[in-house]
Amino acid sequence: MFARLLALVGLSILLGGCGGGGATLAGPIGSEAPSQDDQYVIGPGDGLQVFVWGHDDLSTNVSVRPDGNISTPLVEDMRAAGRTPTQLARAIEEALSQYVRSPTVTVIVQQFVGEYAQQVRVVGQATEPMSLNYRSGMTLLDVMIEVGGLSEFASGNRARIVRRENGEETVINVRINDLLNRGDMTQNVRMRPGDVLIIPESVF
pLDDT tens for residues 81-125? Predict the structure, then answer.
């Protein structure tokens, strides 16, 4: 099963590289333009490197506290959770401008946990059900590789993705067996932050 997953990864890369002027794959993959959802959003537990150019005494490594805040030299209780690294850097610059002339700040995420709404959760009959940090461009195949494929008793073709956007819940039926066993790339849907992939057990 895992070898088949790796073969499918190679196939998807090969097909992606042959897109110059040719027909594109049918289905959801690649049909969505990158959006703000693709930007990593900092969450509690993330490890951050805050670098203030030209001021080593103000640069530090911090962890985002459970309350979503961080404290750095000269800046106490700065809200980090819910912001992108760039947004947080600009907020720290604004706070430091009271003490430093034209500060330039870079925030680098070194340990990723992410906000709950930024995770993709896999429940049911995966080999290793788990929560995954959403990554830009993540697809169903990427998720299945992360969880080690389907379990022995999975009914992959009855799987579904539950997605909540703008207060509304959408259910997307996916055929994971067809994706993994037949290489049906039309089933390789693009995932979104907060998606829940439910894989039911086979009915005997």
Answer: 889 999 999 999 999 999 999 999 999 988 777 667 778 999 999
How many domains does the chain fold into?
2
Q: Do residue 166 and residue 126 come from a single domain?
A: yes
Per-residue pLDDT tens over the stretch 136-169: 789 999 999 999 999 999 999 999 999 987 788 9
Residue 13 binned pLDDT confidence (cut-offs 50, 70, 90):
very low
Residues 132 and 143 sit within 8 Å (Cβ to Cβ): yes
* Domain span holding position 76: 42-111
How far is residue 39's CA from residue 137's CA, in Å, rounded to a whole number? 11
Residue 174 buriedness (CB in 10 A; 0-12 / 13-18 / 19+): buried
194 shares a domain with 154: yes
Contacts of 150 (CB under 8 A, 6+ apart): 1, 125, 126, 127, 144, 156, 176, 177, 180, 199
**Assigned token pair, 119:** 């995770």
Are 61 and 79 contained in the same domain? yes
pLDDT of 55:
94
Are 52 and 78 part of one and the same domain?
yes
Q: Which of 182, 200, 196, 188 is nearest to 140 (CA)?
A: 188
CA distance 145 to 154: 15
Based on the domain organization, do 165 and 183 belong to the same domain? yes
Domain contains 128: yes
* pLDDT computed for residue 5 by the predictor: 55
